[in-house]
From TrEMBL:
GO terms for molecular function: metal ion binding. It comes from Herbiconiux flava. InterPro entries: SQR/QFR_C/D (IPR034804), SuccDH_FuR_B_TM-su (IPR000701). CDD domains: SQR_TypeA_SdhD_like. Keywords: Heme, Iron, Membrane, Metal-binding, Transmembrane, Transmembrane helix. GO terms for cellular component: membrane. This is Succinate dehydrogenase / fumarate reductase membrane anchor subunit.
């Protein structure tokens, strides 16, 4: 009894013989960003959960103190950017594989792009504009490391 495997669907993108092969670079990005994300995420988990008092220490003051250091701002920003682009690229691949109509594919890809860009912009703004010691706040509500103003 012979089993026949159907040929895969033709890709929706037009193949060009010259120019940049974006699918190849997307594939390479997924592998490289995955490796870097493993280091970033496990480093993040190690510092937040195992160093010091562990999970009991994570509160507003912990995050405020952590984000007052430029190293952790860059670390968390890099983790955010890589994770969002990695996830968006994965969703793009799924849409290209399963959306059969061109209009549906374009709408879904546009929605993914808008969501990824919005999350990257908002997340980056939070990391770099976070102020754990806002001016005019009652002293009893501020973290212990804030100087009374």
């Amino acid at each position: 009894m012979a089993t026949t495997i159907e040929s895969p669907r033709a890709p929706h993108t037009v193949r060009r013989s010259r120019g940049v092969n974006w699918e190849k670079w997307g594939w390479i990005y997924m592998r490289a960003s995955g490796v870097v994300l493993l280091v970033l995420i496990f480093g993040h988990l190690f510092v937040n959960l195992l160093v010091g008092d562990g999970i009991k220490a994570i509160d507003f003051a912990f995050v405020g103190g952590k984000w007052s250091d430029p190293f952790w701002q860059v670390w968390d920003t890099l983790m955010l950017w890589l994770a969002m682009i990695h996830g968006g690229n994965g969703m793009r691949t799924i849409v290209n594989d399963y959306a059969t109509k061109a209009v549906t594919r374009k709408v879904l890809l546009g929605a993914i792009l808008v969501a990824v860009v919005a999350m990257i912009v908002l997340g980056t703004l939070v990391v770099y504009t976070f102020d754990p010691c806002p001016v005019g706040s009652p002293a009893d509500l501020l973290p212990s490391f804030c100087a009374t103003r």
